[in-house]
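Reproducibility note. Readers wishing to regenerate the assembly model reported in the main text can use the exact inputs given here. Chain order matters: entities are listed in the order in which they were concatenated for prediction.
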Amino acid sequence: METVFDKILSKEIPADIIYEDNICLAFKDINPQAPVHVLLIPKKRIATIQDATPNDKEILGHMSTKIPEIATGLGLAENGYRVVVNCKENGGQEVPHLHYHILGGRKLKWPPG
Ligand code: AMP
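Running the prediction on these inputs yields the following structure tokens for the assembly.
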């Protein structure tokens, strides 16, 4: 299913892109929930984390190691941050293209609502 993130990937709609390579793309969330709110997505269309398979190991491993690099670039390394993956309806996922929310710049509350 094509989503708004496919349009961002194809540059059909603009986004504030902060990192890109051949596997993933990171851009600022349009509706930030913290002073820093970035989304990291795979270029491959994987609808939810629940749809990830062993074939996606390389992509997911690559993205996991990009998170600290991106967080450092965003100035979040020292004080920390949160990485969130919402999955399907109960998880509050609105866009069915896997994405990691990287949130920081303030003390975040726990537990989530
Ligand atoms: P989720 O609810 O986990 O599916 O998160 C989807 C996120 O995508 C939300 O935080 C939205 O604010 C964000 N979003 C939706 N459309 C855009 C867009 N065009 N550019 C940047 N972020 C977007």
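We highlight two features of this model. The chain has a mean pLDDT of 98. The pocket of adenosine monophosphate is lined by residues 4, 15, 29-31, 39, 86, 92-95 (CB under 6 Å).
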